[in-house]
Amino acid sequence: MTSRESIGPPWDHAWAGRVDEHAFDSQALTANPLGDPHRRPLLVYLPPGYDADLDRRYPTIYRLQGLTGQVDMWRNRGAFRPNPLEAIDDLFARTGTPPAIVVHVDAWTRLGGSQFVDSPGTGRYHTYLCDEIVPFIDAHYRTLARPEHRGLAGKSSGGYGAMVNAMLRPDLFGALATHAGDALFEVCYLPEFAGAARALAREHDGSYERFWADLRSRAGRVRSGDELLLNTWCMAACYSAEADGTVRLPFETDTGRLVPEVWERWLEHDPVRMAPRHAEALRSLRAIWIDAGRSDEFSLDLGAIAFRGELAKLGIGEPTVHFELFDGTHSNTEWRYPLAIAWLSERLAQ
User: Fold this and answer.
1) Same domain? 239 vs 166
2) Residues 71-104 pLDDT 10s
3) Which helix (H) or strand (E) element contains residue 280?
4) What is the pTM of this model?
Protein backbone atom coordinates (compact mmCIF):
# COMPACT_ATOMS: atom_id res chain seq x y z
CA MET A 1 0.00 0.00 0.00
CA THR A 2 1.38 3.41 -0.97
CA SER A 3 1.32 6.13 1.67
CA ARG A 4 0.67 9.77 0.85
CA GLU A 5 0.56 13.14 2.50
CA SER A 6 -2.76 14.58 3.56
CA ILE A 7 -4.46 16.31 0.64
CA GLY A 8 -7.18 18.03 2.62
CA PRO A 9 -10.96 18.10 2.31
CA PRO A 10 -13.07 16.59 0.95
CA TRP A 11 -10.69 13.62 0.70
CA ASP A 12 -9.17 13.98 4.16
CA HIS A 13 -10.48 15.15 7.50
CA ALA A 14 -8.50 16.88 10.24
CA TRP A 15 -9.66 14.86 13.22
CA ALA A 16 -10.14 16.58 16.57
CA GLY A 17 -11.28 13.33 18.17
CA ARG A 18 -10.56 9.81 16.96
CA VAL A 19 -12.27 6.59 15.94
CA ASP A 20 -11.29 3.26 17.49
CA GLU A 21 -12.02 0.13 15.47
CA HIS A 22 -12.73 -3.22 17.12
CA ALA A 23 -13.49 -6.72 15.91
CA PHE A 24 -16.08 -7.85 18.43
CA ASP A 25 -16.72 -11.56 19.05
CA SER A 26 -20.36 -11.99 19.99
CA GLN A 27 -21.58 -14.94 22.02
CA ALA A 28 -25.18 -13.92 21.32
CA LEU A 29 -24.68 -14.09 17.55
CA THR A 30 -22.70 -17.32 17.57
CA ALA A 31 -24.59 -20.04 15.63
CA ASN A 32 -27.28 -17.55 14.58
CA PRO A 33 -29.99 -19.02 12.33
CA LEU A 34 -28.81 -17.24 9.17
CA GLY A 35 -25.20 -18.31 9.53
CA ASP A 36 -24.06 -14.68 9.59
CA PRO A 37 -20.67 -13.81 11.12
CA HIS A 38 -20.60 -13.59 14.89
CA ARG A 39 -17.41 -11.48 14.69
CA ARG A 40 -18.51 -7.91 13.99
CA PRO A 41 -16.84 -4.55 13.39
CA LEU A 42 -17.47 -1.92 16.05
CA LEU A 43 -16.57 1.76 15.64
CA VAL A 44 -16.14 3.93 18.74
CA TYR A 45 -15.85 7.69 18.27
CA LEU A 46 -13.96 9.44 21.09
CA PRO A 47 -14.44 13.21 21.34
CA PRO A 48 -11.75 15.91 21.47
CA GLY A 49 -9.95 15.90 24.81
CA TYR A 50 -10.62 12.26 25.63
CA ASP A 51 -6.90 11.43 25.72
CA ALA A 52 -5.91 14.62 27.57
CA ASP A 53 -8.03 14.44 30.72
CA LEU A 54 -7.75 10.89 32.00
CA ASP A 55 -10.06 11.52 34.96
CA ARG A 56 -13.05 12.67 32.92
CA ARG A 57 -15.95 10.33 32.15
CA TYR A 58 -18.40 10.70 29.27
CA PRO A 59 -21.99 9.98 28.31
CA THR A 60 -22.45 7.42 25.55
CA ILE A 61 -24.69 7.39 22.49
CA TYR A 62 -25.24 4.19 20.51
CA ARG A 63 -25.90 4.80 16.80
CA LEU A 64 -28.00 2.23 14.95
CA GLN A 65 -28.27 1.93 11.16
CA GLY A 66 -31.26 1.38 8.93
CA LEU A 67 -32.10 -1.65 6.81
CA THR A 68 -29.18 -2.84 4.60
CA GLY A 69 -26.76 -0.78 6.70
CA GLN A 70 -23.40 -2.15 7.75
CA VAL A 71 -21.13 -0.21 10.05
CA ASP A 72 -18.43 0.69 7.50
CA MET A 73 -21.06 2.71 5.60
CA TRP A 74 -20.68 5.46 8.21
CA ARG A 75 -17.52 6.35 6.27
CA ASN A 76 -19.41 6.93 3.01
CA ARG A 77 -19.27 10.54 1.86
CA GLY A 78 -21.84 12.27 -0.33
CA ALA A 79 -21.17 15.30 -2.47
CA PHE A 80 -20.69 18.62 -0.67
CA ARG A 81 -20.84 17.20 2.85
CA PRO A 82 -18.65 15.27 5.29
CA ASN A 83 -19.39 11.66 6.06
CA PRO A 84 -21.38 10.97 9.27
CA LEU A 85 -18.28 10.22 11.37
CA GLU A 86 -16.61 13.45 10.27
CA ALA A 87 -19.81 15.41 10.90
CA ILE A 88 -19.88 14.18 14.50
CA ASP A 89 -16.24 15.15 14.93
CA ASP A 90 -16.99 18.63 13.58
CA LEU A 91 -19.95 18.90 15.95
CA PHE A 92 -17.87 18.30 19.07
CA ALA A 93 -14.84 20.26 17.82
CA ARG A 94 -16.62 23.42 16.68
CA THR A 95 -19.90 23.93 18.50
CA GLY A 96 -19.26 23.66 22.24
CA THR A 97 -21.56 20.65 22.47
CA PRO A 98 -20.82 18.63 25.63
CA PRO A 99 -18.61 15.75 24.51
CA ALA A 100 -19.88 12.19 24.27
CA ILE A 101 -18.61 8.81 23.18
CA VAL A 102 -20.54 7.71 20.10
CA VAL A 103 -20.65 3.95 19.45
CA HIS A 104 -21.53 2.63 15.99
CA VAL A 105 -23.02 -0.86 16.17
CA ASP A 106 -23.14 -3.34 13.29
CA ALA A 107 -26.35 -5.40 13.13
CA TRP A 108 -26.35 -6.39 9.45
CA THR A 109 -27.78 -9.75 8.38
CA ARG A 110 -27.86 -11.54 5.06
CA LEU A 111 -31.53 -10.48 4.86
CA GLY A 112 -30.50 -6.84 5.13
CA GLY A 113 -31.02 -6.15 8.81
CA SER A 114 -32.20 -7.30 12.21
CA GLN A 115 -34.45 -4.52 13.61
CA PHE A 116 -32.20 -4.82 16.71
CA VAL A 117 -34.56 -7.42 18.21
CA ASP A 118 -34.14 -11.03 19.30
CA SER A 119 -35.76 -13.32 16.75
CA PRO A 120 -35.46 -17.02 15.85
CA GLY A 121 -35.48 -15.88 12.23
CA THR A 122 -32.42 -13.61 12.37
CA GLY A 123 -30.59 -13.90 15.69
CA ARG A 124 -30.27 -12.29 19.11
CA TYR A 125 -29.49 -8.70 18.13
CA HIS A 126 -31.23 -7.09 21.10
CA THR A 127 -29.14 -9.25 23.45
CA TYR A 128 -25.99 -8.51 21.42
CA LEU A 129 -26.53 -4.76 21.75
CA CYS A 130 -27.68 -4.62 25.35
CA ASP A 131 -25.85 -7.44 27.10
CA GLU A 132 -22.60 -7.49 25.11
CA ILE A 133 -21.83 -4.18 23.40
CA VAL A 134 -22.88 -1.90 26.27
CA PRO A 135 -20.83 -3.79 28.92
CA PHE A 136 -17.86 -3.94 26.55
CA ILE A 137 -17.90 -0.16 26.05
CA ASP A 138 -18.25 0.50 29.78
CA ALA A 139 -15.34 -1.85 30.51
CA HIS A 140 -12.96 -0.38 27.92
CA TYR A 141 -13.80 3.35 27.94
CA ARG A 142 -14.32 6.04 30.55
CA THR A 143 -18.09 6.16 30.41
CA LEU A 144 -20.67 7.46 32.82
CA ALA A 145 -22.05 3.95 33.22
CA ARG A 146 -25.61 4.73 34.26
CA PRO A 147 -28.80 4.80 32.17
CA GLU A 148 -29.28 8.54 32.59
CA HIS A 149 -26.03 9.00 30.65
CA ARG A 150 -26.69 6.51 27.83
CA GLY A 151 -28.71 7.15 24.70
CA LEU A 152 -29.71 5.47 21.44
CA ALA A 153 -30.01 7.12 18.03
CA GLY A 154 -30.91 5.85 14.59
CA LYS A 155 -32.81 6.32 11.36
CA SER A 156 -35.52 4.12 9.85
CA SER A 157 -34.90 0.58 11.18
CA GLY A 158 -32.22 2.15 13.39
CA GLY A 159 -34.79 4.59 14.71
CA TYR A 160 -37.06 1.64 15.37
CA GLY A 161 -34.23 -0.04 17.27
CA ALA A 162 -33.73 3.12 19.32
CA MET A 163 -37.39 3.28 20.33
CA VAL A 164 -37.77 -0.42 21.10
CA ASN A 165 -34.53 -0.94 23.00
CA ALA A 166 -35.13 2.14 25.12
CA MET A 167 -38.56 0.78 26.02
CA LEU A 168 -37.28 -2.73 26.74
CA ARG A 169 -34.17 -1.72 28.69
CA PRO A 170 -34.72 1.42 30.76
CA ASP A 171 -32.10 -0.02 33.11
CA LEU A 172 -29.53 0.71 30.36
CA PHE A 173 -30.81 3.68 28.34
CA GLY A 174 -32.09 7.06 29.39
CA ALA A 175 -32.64 8.79 26.05
CA LEU A 176 -33.36 8.13 22.40
CA ALA A 177 -33.42 9.83 19.02
CA THR A 178 -35.50 8.35 16.21
CA HIS A 179 -35.29 9.72 12.68
CA ALA A 180 -38.26 8.36 10.73
CA GLY A 181 -38.23 5.17 12.77
CA ASP A 182 -40.55 2.34 11.73
CA ALA A 183 -43.85 2.93 13.53
CA LEU A 184 -47.61 2.75 12.95
CA PHE A 185 -47.28 -0.50 11.03
CA GLU A 186 -50.65 -0.35 9.24
CA VAL A 187 -49.42 2.82 7.56
CA CYS A 188 -45.75 2.05 6.87
CA TYR A 189 -45.87 -1.72 6.15
CA LEU A 190 -49.40 -2.80 5.26
CA PRO A 191 -49.66 -0.76 2.03
CA GLU A 192 -46.60 -2.59 0.67
CA PHE A 193 -48.05 -6.09 0.86
CA ALA A 194 -50.01 -5.93 -2.40
CA GLY A 195 -46.97 -4.63 -4.29
CA ALA A 196 -44.81 -7.36 -2.78
CA ALA A 197 -47.29 -10.05 -3.82
CA ARG A 198 -47.40 -8.68 -7.37
CA ALA A 199 -43.61 -8.43 -7.62
CA LEU A 200 -43.22 -11.96 -6.31
CA ALA A 201 -45.67 -13.33 -8.90
CA ARG A 202 -44.39 -11.20 -11.79
CA GLU A 203 -40.65 -11.72 -11.33
CA HIS A 204 -40.22 -14.90 -9.29
CA ASP A 205 -43.17 -17.22 -9.97
CA GLY A 206 -44.52 -16.55 -6.48
CA SER A 207 -41.44 -17.98 -4.76
CA TYR A 208 -39.36 -16.14 -2.18
CA GLU A 209 -36.66 -18.79 -2.57
CA ARG A 210 -36.35 -17.80 -6.23
CA PHE A 211 -36.29 -14.13 -5.29
CA TRP A 212 -33.36 -14.57 -2.92
CA ALA A 213 -31.45 -16.77 -5.36
CA ASP A 214 -32.01 -14.24 -8.13
CA LEU A 215 -31.13 -11.22 -5.98
CA ARG A 216 -27.87 -12.76 -4.81
CA SER A 217 -26.90 -13.74 -8.36
CA ARG A 218 -27.23 -10.18 -9.70
CA ALA A 219 -24.30 -8.66 -7.76
CA GLY A 220 -26.03 -5.40 -6.88
CA ARG A 221 -28.08 -4.96 -10.04
CA VAL A 222 -31.51 -3.73 -8.95
CA ARG A 223 -34.84 -4.89 -10.34
CA SER A 224 -38.27 -3.39 -9.79
CA GLY A 225 -39.85 -4.84 -6.67
CA ASP A 226 -36.58 -5.80 -4.97
CA GLU A 227 -36.97 -3.29 -2.16
CA LEU A 228 -40.55 -4.33 -1.38
CA LEU A 229 -39.67 -8.01 -1.32
CA LEU A 230 -36.51 -7.60 0.73
CA ASN A 231 -38.14 -5.31 3.27
CA THR A 232 -41.22 -7.48 3.73
CA TRP A 233 -39.30 -10.74 4.18
CA CYS A 234 -36.78 -9.18 6.56
CA MET A 235 -39.53 -7.70 8.73
CA ALA A 236 -41.31 -11.08 8.81
CA ALA A 237 -38.06 -12.77 9.86
CA CYS A 238 -37.83 -10.27 12.73
CA TYR A 239 -41.50 -10.08 13.79
CA SER A 240 -43.19 -13.38 12.88
CA ALA A 241 -40.68 -16.22 12.68
CA GLU A 242 -41.53 -19.49 14.38
CA ALA A 243 -39.33 -20.97 17.09
CA ASP A 244 -37.59 -23.17 14.50
CA GLY A 245 -36.75 -20.11 12.35
CA THR A 246 -39.55 -20.61 9.81
CA VAL A 247 -40.59 -17.20 8.49
CA ARG A 248 -44.32 -16.59 8.29
CA LEU A 249 -45.56 -13.78 6.06
CA PRO A 250 -48.55 -11.67 7.13
CA PHE A 251 -50.22 -11.97 3.71
CA GLU A 252 -51.06 -14.60 1.11
CA THR A 253 -48.42 -14.43 -1.60
CA ASP A 254 -50.85 -15.01 -4.49
CA THR A 255 -53.36 -12.30 -3.55
CA GLY A 256 -51.80 -10.06 -0.88
CA ARG A 257 -54.73 -10.92 1.38
CA LEU A 258 -53.95 -10.34 5.04
CA VAL A 259 -53.31 -13.29 7.36
CA PRO A 260 -54.74 -11.79 10.57
CA GLU A 261 -53.02 -14.01 13.13
CA VAL A 262 -49.59 -13.30 11.64
CA TRP A 263 -50.31 -9.59 11.22
CA GLU A 264 -51.22 -9.39 14.90
CA ARG A 265 -47.75 -10.67 15.73
CA TRP A 266 -46.29 -7.78 13.73
CA LEU A 267 -48.49 -5.27 15.53
CA GLU A 268 -47.15 -6.49 18.88
CA HIS A 269 -43.78 -5.04 17.77
CA ASP A 270 -45.17 -1.65 16.68
CA PRO A 271 -43.68 1.14 18.86
CA VAL A 272 -47.01 2.97 18.76
CA ARG A 273 -48.70 -0.05 20.32
CA MET A 274 -45.77 -0.90 22.58
CA ALA A 275 -45.75 2.55 24.21
CA PRO A 276 -48.71 2.03 26.58
CA ARG A 277 -47.27 -1.33 27.69
CA HIS A 278 -43.94 0.34 28.51
CA ALA A 279 -45.26 3.56 29.99
CA GLU A 280 -42.99 3.57 33.03
CA ALA A 281 -39.90 2.93 30.92
CA LEU A 282 -40.79 5.84 28.66
CA ARG A 283 -41.53 8.12 31.61
CA SER A 284 -38.07 7.34 32.98
CA LEU A 285 -36.32 8.72 29.87
CA ARG A 286 -34.78 12.16 30.17
CA ALA A 287 -34.79 12.95 26.42
CA ILE A 288 -36.77 11.74 23.37
CA TRP A 289 -36.03 13.21 19.91
CA ILE A 290 -38.54 12.40 17.15
CA ASP A 291 -38.29 13.72 13.61
CA ALA A 292 -39.17 12.79 10.03
CA GLY A 293 -39.46 14.34 6.59
CA ARG A 294 -42.93 15.59 5.67
CA SER A 295 -42.68 13.73 2.35
CA ASP A 296 -41.35 10.44 3.72
CA GLU A 297 -42.03 7.77 1.07
CA PHE A 298 -42.96 5.19 3.72
CA SER A 299 -45.29 7.58 5.59
CA LEU A 300 -43.01 7.45 8.62
CA ASP A 301 -43.87 11.08 9.30
CA LEU A 302 -47.30 9.75 10.26
CA GLY A 303 -45.66 7.12 12.44
CA ALA A 304 -43.66 9.87 14.15
CA ILE A 305 -46.85 11.83 14.81
CA ALA A 306 -48.55 8.71 16.19
CA PHE A 307 -45.65 7.84 18.49
CA ARG A 308 -45.56 11.39 19.79
CA GLY A 309 -49.31 11.15 20.38
CA GLU A 310 -48.90 8.01 22.48
CA LEU A 311 -46.23 9.75 24.54
CA ALA A 312 -48.60 12.66 25.11
CA LYS A 313 -51.28 10.27 26.39
CA LEU A 314 -48.72 9.02 28.90
CA GLY A 315 -48.04 12.56 30.06
CA ILE A 316 -44.67 12.80 28.30
CA GLY A 317 -44.12 16.01 26.36
CA GLU A 318 -41.87 19.06 26.27
CA PRO A 319 -39.17 19.57 27.42
CA THR A 320 -38.48 15.81 27.46
CA VAL A 321 -39.74 15.40 23.89
CA HIS A 322 -38.39 17.22 20.87
CA PHE A 323 -40.67 16.69 17.86
CA GLU A 324 -40.04 18.06 14.39
CA LEU A 325 -41.26 17.47 10.86
CA PHE A 326 -38.93 18.95 8.26
CA ASP A 327 -39.06 19.47 4.51
CA GLY A 328 -37.63 16.26 3.12
CA THR A 329 -38.12 12.61 2.27
CA HIS A 330 -36.74 9.38 3.70
CA SER A 331 -33.42 9.95 1.91
CA ASN A 332 -30.58 12.44 2.30
CA THR A 333 -31.34 13.13 5.94
CA GLU A 334 -27.77 12.80 7.25
CA TRP A 335 -27.80 16.49 8.14
CA ARG A 336 -30.33 15.68 10.86
CA TYR A 337 -27.99 13.34 12.76
CA PRO A 338 -25.66 15.93 14.33
CA LEU A 339 -28.67 17.98 15.46
CA ALA A 340 -30.03 15.04 17.42
CA ILE A 341 -26.62 13.98 18.73
CA ALA A 342 -26.01 17.50 20.05
CA TRP A 343 -29.45 17.60 21.71
CA LEU A 344 -28.94 14.20 23.32
CA SER A 345 -25.39 15.03 24.44
CA GLU A 346 -26.52 18.14 26.26
CA ARG A 347 -29.12 16.19 28.21
CA LEU A 348 -27.05 13.09 28.86
CA ALA A 349 -24.23 15.22 30.24
CA GLN A 350 -26.44 16.64 33.00
Assistant:
1) no
2) 999 999 888 899 999 999 999 999 999 999 999 9
3) helix 279-284
4) 0.96
